[in-house]
Amino acid sequence: MYRLDPRYPPAPGSTLTTGWPALAGTLPTGPATLAIEGPPTADWDTLSARLTDELDRRGTRVRTLDIRAHYAPPEVVRRRTERPEDTTDPYYCKLAENHLRDLFGELPPTPRHYGPDGLLIVYGPGASLVPYDLLWYADLPKRHAETAVAAATGRNLGLPDEPPSLRRLFYVDWPMLDRHRDRLAPRLDAWLDLQDADRPACLDGDGLRRTLAALARQPVRTRPYFNSTPWGGHWAQRDLGFNPGARNTALGYELIAPESGVLIGHGPDAQAEVPFQLLCVLQPEGVLGPDVHTRFGTSFPIRFDYLDTVDGGNLSVHCHPKEPYMRAQFGWDYTQHETYYLTHGSPDTRVFLGLREDTDLALFRKQIEEAAQDGVPMDPADHVQTFPAEQGRLFLIPAGTPHASGAGNLVLEISATPYLYSLRFYDWLRPDADGRPRQLPYEHGLANLETDRRGDAVARDLVQEPRTLRTGDGWREELIGALDEMFYEVRRYALDPAATAADDTAGRFHVLNVVEGEGVELVTAAGDVHALSYAETLTVPAAVGGYRLRALGDARVLVVKALVRC
Questions:
Q1: CA nearest 212: which of 272, 135, 301, 294?
Q2: 0.85 cut: is pTM over it?
Q3: In terms of CB atoms within 10 Å, which of 185, 369, 458, 474 comes out highest?
């Protein structure tokens, strides 16, 4: 059965506490300085007040310092963190490379100026820029930030008094915060999860690092969630139990490394969500493998997510940046290649993919502009080919290829990790959730449009037939998609009931998803056992080495696998 809250116990010797009294009980009476770092989405005023109240009850003398009061003026923050050429682009800007120090003017005096006794708590993004004795990180997963900024209740980093912007959140705030958090991870004294404001969870720093070191040697599943969009469907609501009160389930975050988290704890009342990215930062070779780590650093380069359009609408017709454009304009070292695996589809639904042989590029541009500027409808199928959305079919989507999933499908995207660069050409004249026209960065899209691969070459190259790689007693492993221009490939296991197939990471991580059947049991050479049910995604770190997959249930099981190519 699909689990909404996969959870892993803390390593032996770890301390996981919950509630403000327990947090206060871990602190000395002084003299000491506690720096509490974290994102701007955290409720810093509440954190300061609740922690101070608990320490007062214990008789601890407490003083507080809100580091946010020392931000530089807004115009200085903007000038330091955005290139002049980015200010004219309403959709994107190049990933910020700044240190958090660039957000500040004069930093406050060092803690010794606040007196020799008691406990000084410095809190807010950048708190660790002043000298400290203890360091905590107070976190809210990124999905909370996106929701808050979209609702205009959140704030951007360094701009607490200005209206928030998703553009700045994605391309300025998150890169700066991620780098800062990653630098702090080896020396954190505690990790705080603030999702329950009345009962925060706290995992001690050494326990955090020991637990992540253990998880880097065993299969691990991240916490999944779905958001809602104007095109979303209802499969995940009906079949998996996600978001029963939401208008739909659209994009399903199975494994998107920059946003995904791992639940560490003993149960729903005692758990902390920790970014999956910290696994890659603290255990890069164990998770990624030496060669992948050399190539991609600590960036986990493959993502798995769902596009649910069952009883929903068509996705926008769009493409993704080619690699030179991605590097120069947006700042990523690698680009957004994608694939669509049809977990649910039919001959009556469709996938848009690649230009037709007879596409008139000038007419394509003209109709895109008329739709965006004057609301004139167009038929994308006049320019972009369509294919039956046959269940079990994989479509390869290298950067620059125009594509979209049609309504009525459940797509498992098996893609490169960059995920915030959908260069839309046409969105069916659909408004966003607030009734406004959806943004269409079609000029970026046209600058990246792949015009050489069209017509029959699209089907030949991008809609491949499975090729058997290995077989055994009741199972086979197939290659279902690979291209020279894409750095990863997609394979599939077909297992008869009770069949067992052996595999080995061979120094490169694997990512698995059960696309048909009840599920599998994965057993590693070290004896770790992990069940994987239908629709679930599992990361097998490079350090796992050998493992076996055993089919569960009375019917055939299909498992897709993605890995970085040699």
A1: 272
A2: yes
A3: 458
